């Protein structure tokens, strides 16, 4: 971030309760940032998870007109912020901008590429989510972020899906067709049986975000926004209102398949049991595609 071609930004780094040397390493960069003309603050806090941490960082500790994200371990190319800022400021109607990115391992080797349509669109019929990018490389206006409600705490996972669906209702997205970001592939995978609960929660949270958008676009009500006290069971109930979104069905099939391949039959069956008999036709259409993609990802470790 200190190699950006523009210094017209500040850094607010969040250490979400790490027990290693993360805070010290970040603190050591404050003087380097000052030398580069970039104000930098480091906030060490108790562990609260990504959603609450980024929500508090944006809403309690910063007041900038524009918000740019940057994931831990990731790399922003030098021209990233300048190009994204220029895109936002010179294109009326665009309120969020991302870019293409490479996925890298801990050695810095490129192991995959992530592309995004230049003009991301939404189609709730087939579950197409309007994503300006993969989250870490995105930039958006604070005004619209606040107007749509920002990150919502119930979304321990799928918080980006929920945010993009609400933000898209206020303006257009754009993805710069240039690789301005490198995303570190985490070794803390949530695909396997040992992390079954996390994976299921991710699928259900994203499904609840899609279903909430469907209902919101149908009658203006937001089933999530109307609840004061949230539990995961409510997200499950919202996801199962009417037809379960196709991306959720694909996700459940994927979780079931991974667990079956690992010999965890109980979790495999449990994932499928979340669906209903009414979803059978959709399931049958999705199975071959999902299994093919799952096998590819498993053996190529993407």
UniProtKB/TrEMBL annotation:
A Pfam family this chain is assigned to:
Glycos_transf_2
Indicate whether Glycosyltransferase appears among the record's keywords: yes
Q: Which GO terms describe its molecular function?
A: glycosyltransferase activity
Ranges for domain Glycosyltransferase 2-like: 2-143
Q: Which spans of this chain does the record mark as coiled coil?
A: none
**Keywords for this entry?**
Glycosyltransferase, Transferase
Give the UniProt family note. Answer: Belongs to the glycosyltransferase 2 family.
Protein name per Swiss-Prot or TrEMBL: Glycosyl transferase family protein
Native organism taxonomy:
Archaea, Methanobacteriati, Methanobacteriota, Stenosarchaea group, Halobacteria
